[in-house]
């Protein structure tokens, strides 16, 4: 009987102390991770990885369209960003401006670029004109947004920590050309 009591007591002690050390290991791991994160953020390299205090523009891929709500997935380049914010929901209202970016013909864009370069060389010291963009904007509708589209979404408010927000401007990026 004594032997059975010792075995049961040993088993219970083993389970108890292993759970305790597991909890201590988890907190030690978290403390180590937090220290490493702080060290990286405090370094000169950390400035690159630090998320700005205010974000009003995000880009991502559409995963779902449901009425005036669009779900999209962003790819954060910052490893310490909150992973639950990789998936966001955009609310589109009547005032939301939606446009589709259309790739310009390469010859047209090249001509615009040459004109820009010439004008910037002639007027030394003058305010430079804005360089031409390789695409033009066309008005679009909510119905033009489909799953798989890449969007650039602009909001009036800070959306850094918002899971859902109202867009003021949405740009549908051109689809890649498959050769």
Order of helices and strands: HHEEEEHEEEE
Count of runs of 4 or more consecutive helical residues: 3
- Domain module count: 2
Tell me the major beta sheet: 8 strands, mixed
Unreliable spans are none
Fraction of residues in helix: 25-40%
The chain-level mean pLDDT equals: 81
Structural class label: alpha+beta
Can you give a write-up of this model?
The protein is of the alpha+beta class. The protein has helices spanning 2-42, 46-49, 106-122, and strands at 57-66, 69-73, 87-91, 97-103, 135-139, 150-154, 164-166, 169-172. Strands 5-4-8-6-1-2-3-7 form an eight-stranded mixed sheet, with no helix packed on it. A hairpin with a 2-residue loop joins strand 1 and strand 2 (69-73). The protein has two domains: 2-49; 57-172, no CATH class. It starts with a helix and ends in a 7-residue tail after the last strand.
Question: What's the arrangement of secondary structure elements?
Answer:
Blueprint (H helix, E strand, L loop, with lengths): L1 H41 L3 H4 L7 E10 L2 E5 L13 E5 L5 E7 L2 H17 L12 E5 L10 E5 L9 E3 L2 E4 L7
Summarize the structure in short.
This protein has 2 domains: 2-49; 57-172, no CATH class. Helices cover 35% and strands 25% of the residues.
